UniProtKB/TrEMBL annotation:
Protein name: Sugar ABC transporter ATP-binding protein
Top-level taxonomic group: Bacteria
GO molecular function: ABC-type oligopeptide transporter activity; ATP binding; ATP hydrolysis activity
Native source species: Faecalibacterium prausnitzii
Keywords: ATP-binding, Membrane, Nucleotide-binding, Transmembrane, Transmembrane helix, Transport
Cellular localization per UniProt: Cell membrane
Pfam (any one): ABC_membrane
Alphabetical list of PANTHER family matching this protein: ATP-BINDING CASSETTE SUB-FAMILY B MEMBER 10, MITOCHONDRIAL, ATP-DEPENDENT PERMEASE MDL1, MITOCHONDRIAL
Gene Ontology terms: cellular component: plasma membrane
Phylogenetic classification of the source organism: Bacteria, Bacillati, Bacillota, Clostridia, Eubacteriales
Membrane association type: Multi-pass membrane protein
Regions that span the bilayer: 28-49, 69-92, 145-168, 174-193, 268-295
Amino acid sequence: MSAKAKSKLTPEQRNATLRRVLHKIKPYSLFVVCSLVVAAVSVAAQLYIPILCGNAIDFMLGKGSVNLSAVLNIVVEILVVAVAAAFAQWLLSVCNNRITFSVSRDLRNEAMRKIQTLPLSYLDSHPSGDIVSRMVADVDTFADGLLMGFTQLFSGVLTILGTLLFMLSQNVPITLVVVCVTPLSLVVASFLAKRSYKYFQGQSTVRGEQTALVNEMIEGQKVVQAFGHEAESLEAFDEVNGRLQDVSLKAIFFSSMTNPATRFVNNIVYAGVGLVGAIYAVAGGITIGQLSIFLSYANQYTKPFNEISGVVTELQNALACAARVFELLDADDQIPEAENAAALQPDGHVVLHDVSFRYLPDRPLIEGLNLDVKPGQRIAIVGPTGCGKTTLINLLMRFYDVNGGSITVSGTDIRDVTRASLRGSYGMVLQDTWLRAGTVRENIAYGKPDATDEEIIAAAKAAHADSFIRRLPEGYNTVIAEDGGNISQGQKQLLCIARVMLCLPPMLILDEATSSIDTRTEVRIQAAFARMMRGRTSFIVAHRLSTIREADVILVMKDGHIVEQGNHDELLAQGGFYATLYNSQFEGVET
């Protein structure tokens, strides 16, 4: 689906988004009521001041007939009312800020919780930059629109209603002049709001694409430069940036038309009030002071239309961004755990019965896979790229659910146990390392936060990471940059190995766990792994077949099927696919 297509929301979707926004505001109803009350006080005070000014003018008309004491009393009254209006405005800001930023906090918290429950298939199919853009940029834009709505919309509507009531109390015919021209302003505002909404929604979508692209390019800048892909990267960015410019210009154009269009209508209202009011004043129907009141009210009445029109435009943008956030929140969660799901009590016995799986409905990957792993066995999984090795690991950990068949651990289907207990039963060291921004100590203790310093150091020594850690500026207290950017890939992998060494769960998964480690260190690590795997069911994915000679069972996978099974010597003796793979690594034979 194109960005343009995704940017369009039906009126029903827009209304549904608005209802959900109001639902998010509901917990802060007390602040909403307080905001309405103080907005009414502020508007009433501001509308009362022109009446006082008009009365003061009438006390100063005529040569030598100025009633100075009455004027001074009115001045004091104006000061008191102005202070009350200012205090009400301050309270209004406090209430509106509390509502807006509380709702924004709730949205971000909900989005973060949602990410924890999303299936990996969603995260694999959506750029991380786009998800970040929804949680950060879109929520920020939503907050800005919501704040403007509470700050100016309430006050604007109350000002319009209050002004009409005050004018009606003074003179009905002049008030009718104002009322008759008002619909023109509403038509203009509605016309511009409908068109700006579509473009603001498109702007949010394309901005998410741009954030995803920038995130991708920054993370992979070394690869971009290594392959001389700078020009193509700039071209891709220019294309997205051009689309963002195009949709942003259209959004800004329609939103910027709001102010001059409504000002034009406002000038018509002011001129009409001035003309009709002057005729009444000349005829003696109203005093000069009352005419000044009407002219002041004409300004105060039309000014909110400018603000409300701008607010409506911003609210359209805010709703467009809120819709993107709600789209994330509405994504399907991972398959929920069974109602009677219990904690797994693993003994290391893993059975795969007639397992089938496919990432895409029309592309089978694993079909009819059967495997019986006895407790304490070391199972090596080998095969060409794309044969399903890592997919099998994902199924064992229940990152993905099987499409057919079953996987049992200790005789219990893994769909009938809690995910936390299942995943806590495995220790994983992957080829793709991940470290959080924090100290070395915190990263090693990621799976066991209450570990003592002695346990952490012992795990680091077992992983042969202690020596390089002590050479770091602050040893175990050295802060690692995001994803370990300030240490080497091999050092990151050693820390990930130490993380598992610390927990020592009953089952292990090693997916190319030593791919980034030098040969000398790898020999020592393999010895440590051998000790760690003793008595533990272990699944080992390896491309270097020399590292799995000691495995109890070697599974040779091809196109999602186990084509050969046995130990190293048995498979070599068969002279089949495994023998071909093994010999190719030592004889340079292509397979």
